[in-house]
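Q: Here's a chain of 187 amino acids. Please give me its 3D structure as tokens.
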Amino acid sequence: MHLRPLAHVLSAALTVACTLVGGQAYAASTGPADQSQAARVVTYDASASAEFRAAVDRGAAIWNASVDGVELRPAAAGQRANIRILADNGWPRALTTSLGNGTVYIGRQAVDQGYDTIRISSHELGHILGLPDRKPGPCTSLMSGSSAGVSCTNPYPNAAEKAAVESGFGALSASLAEVARDVVTVD
């Protein structure tokens, strides 16, 4: 979904319509400084993700290519990250402290059982972006997680999952960010 160009067109049309009916119109900025159209940047620290670092970066890139409302970026050195990503020997899970914030554990237990590391990374990041598990579910649903089986390697969110993330990071994201606090999702 690429909503920013559509929003710019609608803003321009509204400005023209208000002018034509005699109302006062204010030109909306369509440049990069327009905060209402800019993606919310969420940083992640994958320095403790061990052998899963490339899979984490790929999972973030998949989300960046899939949605406009949020952009996942690696945290700069010394910067406090919104998301900490850790490797451990347990099952993959996410601890969400608020929308776009939390800790992801890329558990080796699932990897040892044959689950795909990129799918795991993308799925767990989906939890931090506000998505719940959808189990049981088909492989076409990223949030079906492990219920899709070890043969499923699809790391891409479906249309409904993309729309839910876009909605969560839309105009109401400030109020929604406080809703999900300290939620642990074990997959």
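Q: Can you summarize the key feature?
A: The chain has six helices and six strands.
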